[in-house]
Amino acid sequence: MARYPSVDDLLERAAAQAGWADFGPGDFRDGLAVLIASLERDGDLDPRCDAGVVEDLVRRLVNRLEVERWYVEHPETEDVTVRGPVDIHGLPRTGTTALADMLSLDPQFRCLRGWEQARPVPPPTLDGEATDPRRVEALADQASRSAEQAAMHIYEVDATMEDTELLGMAFHGQQMTLPVPGYRRWWRHSDLGPTYQYHRRVVKLLGSTRPPDLWLFKAPHHKFHLGALAAAYPDARFVMTHRDPAKVVPSYTSLVSTIFPPAAGERDLRALGAEVCEHLREGMERAILERSQLGEERFLDVAHRELVSDPKGTVRRIYDWLGLDLTDAVEETILTWEQEHHMGAAGTHRYTAEQYGLSVDRIRSDYDFYIRHFDVALED
Questions:
Q1: What CATH superfamily classification does 7-374 receive?
Q2: For position 182, what pLDDT does the model report?
């Protein structure tokens, strides 16, 4: 007997809840089917988590239905302008979040916030978003974060963040929130062309009632499918962050292990470490290849050590490369934020590579191609 509902069952539940039947374009059914199969085959979840997992799947399907209804009722949304984006990506734990949070303080950027992604309809308005119930709930979630969570990862409600929900609505997301390695193997080699076209459809909706139209994206997982993203956003320019993979891989494995819902028994952290190491390595191999195809002039590289030691100079270099104006007021706001949120300000994220069956030497050997290609500095 199947543990999780079928694709058809989930679609029926969502349509009944939304009172709408058009799920919109794209190949989302394929991704949903693979995800459910991977949950059945690979998942180690405590059965008490199942209802929440299914609820999330239905919520994303309902979001798709509401997006299509919005387009029918507001056809002018098709003509909304999307400029950019400036896209921050790279290996995770390399400063992508800190850099994105700093640039998000500049009002000339339109940020892709987590709270509007989780329920994109109705799109927010500039005048009403301060008291938008979705944002108010996100603020409450931020206030309830533990000290350990704060030390692991910065979370700013109004900053741009990973497009987990938008890609999740297409069921072609990285899905590092569930123990589904089979799904991730499929995703790494999937064609995300239709996914990023759908991504742009939702971005247009979100921007239709809330300026400006110059978008700022941040998602380390974009490195896996840069060509597909650039096809949907032809004017995109990319800022890629870098750090010693011996620091990156164990840190990210530790973070992921806390994001997954509880397991039915003891989770195999060594298997998780091996999967994360392989996953990120394949992503970087793909990124190097697709960068060369898109044109290196569209990419700016930023070292983690540079961002930490000279945030002011780093930010100025990025603005100069983008040809954007960095006002004195915005620069001061950014530097004040950095001083309050510098590395270690919220505590220390403690982990070891050995916890996850990894070693510094093995990681650096596996990522030697990356270290040499970008002249990545090794850390103690």
A1: P-loop containing nucleotide triphosphate hydrolases (3.40.50.300)
A2: 98
